[in-house]
Amino acid sequence: MFRVFLMIGLGVSFSLWAEQLWFPVQVQADGKKLEYQPLQSVSKAWRLCALLPHGKDHYWWGVSWGLAEEAKRQGVQLGIYEAGGYENLPRQRQQLKDCASNKADAVIIGAISSEGINDLILQLKDEKIPVIDLINGINSDAVAARSSVSFADMATQSLLYLLDHSQQRAIDLAWFPGPAQAAWVQDAEQGLKQQLQGTAVHLLHAGYGATDTFSQATLVRQLFSRQQPDYVLANAVAAGVTQNFISAEGLTKIGVMAYYANPEVVRLIQAGQLLAAATDSPVIQARISIDLALRILENQPYAKQVSPQIRILDQQNINQLPLQHIIAPKQQWMIRQPLAAKTP
Predict the structure, then answer these.
(1) CB 200 within 8 A of CB 170
(2) Average pLDDT in the chain
(3) Disulfide check for 232: which of 5, 60, 256, 342 has CB 3.0–4.6 Å away?
(4) Model pTM greater than 0.85?
(5) How far is CA 327 from its chain centroid?
(6) Predicted confidence (pLDDT) per residue in 177-187, tens digit
(7) Could you tell me the residue range of the domain that residue 85 belongs to?
(8) How many domains is the chain partitioned into structurally?
(9) Rounded to an integer, what distance in angstroms lies between the CA atom of residue 255 and that of residue 14?
(10) How far apart are CA 322 and CA 151, in angstroms?
(11) CA–CA separation, 175 vs 158, rounded Å?
């Protein structure tokens, strides 16, 4: 048996992070590199809804914090709801219906399924309620704008880091992608598959599973009962579980990398245990999604696709990067809050 170490936050004060301006920030907006600047203010207290897949992976704690902080900065109303897991598509559909019934002016969605809410998004478009695709990917032309990063690029850059670290030698690489139905997982697998062509990497597919500790720990135990890889490339939850497992087992020669970062991954890199992680700056993506929604509602110019720069976190640079762009501050848990009823 092995322990999974959880963390609520890192040793940085909440007030310091909350007070720091997050902009300008380097992004790619509709294919152009630029320094992103949000609106300075808005004309009214717009009503926004944000739907997230779950809070089991603490990655989403940072997303919820970014959403809440940007809504607070602009003085707008915001409801934040999570569906409890990727198996709960009906719940996310109902949450979206409830947001519309509660007179939300715009909806931000971290989707459980790339196509499972497309019919509802079309209805919202007809009702002049813009939908912002946040992080996970929605395959619908009815989406008004997107704050997201290509997970194909995240997986590709992660693999390139591992190839460099292994000095291009033949390696066995264990792969823990995440939930099969999620668009970001499908994109990551496509990017990984393309980048693997012509390499000396033997891929060991560990199987799909929800990004909660129990599901990923089960996959980790199953894979290591069959074989021992040279490297592991994994979703953030599996990366943390794997690193704690191999540390407990004394398997010190295995390199573990996450293809996105959460607080546990950041802690393990800082501790000199986990090799590295790619990051898509989820807190920044959340803040940008709020700004995109407000730009549309305010009839201001906006980009249809905004993507923060992908960064690789490793033991050499982890303490030089702005972690408030990646994770929530110390003692900040997942934020869940209802959208207040609209007053007459």
Answers:
(1) yes
(2) 94
(3) 256
(4) yes
(5) 10
(6) 999 989 999 99
(7) 14-149+283-308
(8) 2
(9) 32
(10) 21
(11) 12
